[in-house]
Amino acid sequence: MAGRDLPDDTLWPEDELIPLSKQAQFAARHVLTSRPGVALHINAFNFPCWGMLEKLAPTWLAGMPAIIKPATATAQLTQAMVRLIVDSGLVPEGALQLVCGGVGDMFAHLDYKDAVTFTGSAQTGQRLRAHPRLLEKSIAFTMEADSLNCCVLAEDVTPEMPEFALFIKEVCREMTAKAGQKCTAIRRIIVPAAQVAAVRQALLQRLAGVTVGDPQLEQVRMGALVSHEQA
Fold it and tell me: Aldehyde dehydrogenase domain: from which residue to which, for each copy (predicted)?
């Protein structure tokens, strides 16, 4: 789509002139242009590949080079993918850079031309958002942090109904997909008191059939946690 719809120029009028006065003496027009700085992407541990790629696409469309800072726990996987991208020769030299471990004084070298994105815990994100350099230089900062998601069983749903089976299926899936290590996972379920015992029994029965182990094996349905910190 970008190749078909976006111009080769660095200026792209987004719309037509918008009159700002009755006599049309003043008008405005939105113009998109590339930023002259870099985009620093600090990413979460649970999406070491896809989480990076979803940020690279708009970064490169905006004409900016990207610096990827993956979470330490899964940095090795991110490094392997970055190496594949760089070795492919599909992106210009310097368009993709990788920093593993701490960022050192990297923030001190950023200014208003740059952008910072963060995906991870709300606590860390709030600390980064308040970084003196970001505030002093008005550096664009975007944060994607924790979410609190729940699944609610309605009061009129009983165990023999298909809605009950769907509830159990979805809760079990959220508990086992990525071993529960995703920001959109259900963190709590809300069940009418009269159905607590039935829900508990149904969940135990379904979870008993989940095989835990090496996710490369066909019969395995849940892998290990990414680190001891996630236990």
Answer: 37-230
Among 12, 11, 32, 29, smallest CA distance to 20 is for 29
Q: Can 183 be counted among the known catalytic residues?
A: yes
Catalytic, out of 49, 100, 144, 151 = 144
Q: Residue 3's pLDDT is what? A: 59
**Model's pTM, two decimal places?**
0.79
| CATH code of the domain occupying 35-144 | 3.40.605.10
pLDDT of residue 109: 95
CATH 3.40.605.10 in the chain: give the residue spans: 35-144
- Per the CB < 8 A criterion, the answer to whether 34 and 6 are in contact is no
The residue from 49, 100, 151, 183 that is catalytic is 183
Q: Which part of the chain has CATH 3.40.309.10?
A: 150-226
What is the block-wise mean pLDDT of the chain (231 residues), using blocks of 10 residues?
A: 65 85 86 89 92 93 93 94 95 94 90 95 91 95 88 95 96 88 87 96 94 91 83 65
Q: Does domain 150-226 have CATH number 3.40.309.10?
A: yes
Residue 163 a catalytic site member: no
> Residue 128 has what pLDDT?
92
Contact (Cβ atoms closer than 8 angstroms) between residue 101 and residue 69: no
